[in-house]
Amino acid sequence: MPGIRGPSDYSQEPPRHPCLQINAKEPFNAEPPRPVLISSYVTPVDFFYKRNHGPIPIVDDIEKYCISITGLIGNPKKLFMNDILKLAKYNITATLQCAGNRRTAMSKIRKVKGVGWGAAAIGNAVWGGAKLADVLELVGVPKLTGTTPSGGKHVEFVSIDKCKEENGGPYKASIPLSQATNPEADVLLAYEMNGEPINRDHGYPLRVVVPGFIGARSVKWLESINIIPEECQGFFMQKDYKMFPPSVNWDNINWSTRRPQMDFPVQCVICSLEDVNVVKHGEITIKGYAVSGGGRGIERVDVSIDGGKTWMEASRYQKTGIPYISDDTSSDKWAWVLFEVTTDIPSISEIVAKAVDTAANVQPENVEVIWNLRGILNTSWHRVHVRVGHSNL
Ligand SMILES: Nc1nc2c(c(=O)[nH]1)N[C@H]1C(S)=C(S)[C@@H](COP(=O)(O)O)O[C@H]1N2
Ligand SMILES: [Mo]
């Protein structure tokens, strides 16, 4: 492909921060230590989780790099970086969460398939780029289009990386055309992350960012966009990232019975404490993140120090100096909130955190009821065990 290529081995991977916990080396999958996530509202790029399915693509010549837009449209086109840069630039603060976040905890109930992740396969970034709705206008698809005259209903994003799940083909995914052409859905073709050009791990030179959806739909290293009648038939849409009930196992699974997971449910994680923690004295500060999909804000975060018998409400915040009000225009609707509560704790306690979103959606109390064979969307109440004592004993 012009200007960009997907290598077939791992000899030219980019440098990465040594503090990352590596869950798989090749392809490279890593997350930061949990406490890093609450040290700032916007996650520094070095500490942002990295989720890959193949070797990281290489740009040989950015002048030659272009994306082709084809399919059921009147006016197929190739767009160069300069064409994208000429469009209005938007900075959207959005949290990206892998559907496999907290998978390791789910696998403790019963074995699941997939890379093991702790609770930090998530990050919040300021994505800079053009709106997909503006890009599609360049190929003759107007804003707020559900179906093109020739029957296009979905927008497929195709990458250039070589994934073994696709038998060496590229990663791909799609979203509905109605969302892609809705400027308020804030779907971006992003070339910046936190004010810098997106680095190789996160999709240089251009990636899709679909706010409010599981990370799997935000295709990195974009190579082409196709307007198609049905959703993308790729592995990661049809044979992965689907939510099954606990009764489905590898013997009775029928992938076609479920739709690809798109929007994600309400999630909440304590980041200031390890899963088993010894603290020095009786007062602790409990901090973490809470987020919901679909642009739903966080209405409440409840924290318990007695395993869920009694609850107190945590304070929520995004940007310093601006009080967080869910659903208010002053808040970043696609972004997480951080929460905090300071309390005295008994000598031994089980600390629990759970969030409620603006649609009053709540989290399941136990992981058992949402166990699924692919280990996706573990949004059960997050629990940590704390004992007061001396950590050096
Ligand atoms: N081309 C490509 N895009 C991709 C992936 C991939 O492997 N290849 N992984 C997806 C998944 S599952 C997630 S969670 C996010 C991770 O993005 P990040 O590595 O920038 O955090 O990218 C998505 N986009
Ligand atoms: Mo993911």
Automatic annotation (TrEMBL):
It is an enzyme of class 1 (oxidoreductase). Residues 53-235 form the Oxidoreductase molybdopterin-binding domain. Residues 260-388 form the Moybdenum cofactor oxidoreductase dimerisation domain. GO terms for molecular function: metal ion binding; sulfite oxidase activity. Its cofactor is Mo-molybdopterin. The keyword Cell membrane does not apply. Its EC number is 1.8.3.1. Keywords: Metal-binding, Molybdenum, Oxidoreductase. Pathway: Sulfur metabolism; Energy metabolism; sulfur metabolism. It comes from the Eukaryota. This is Sulfite oxidase.
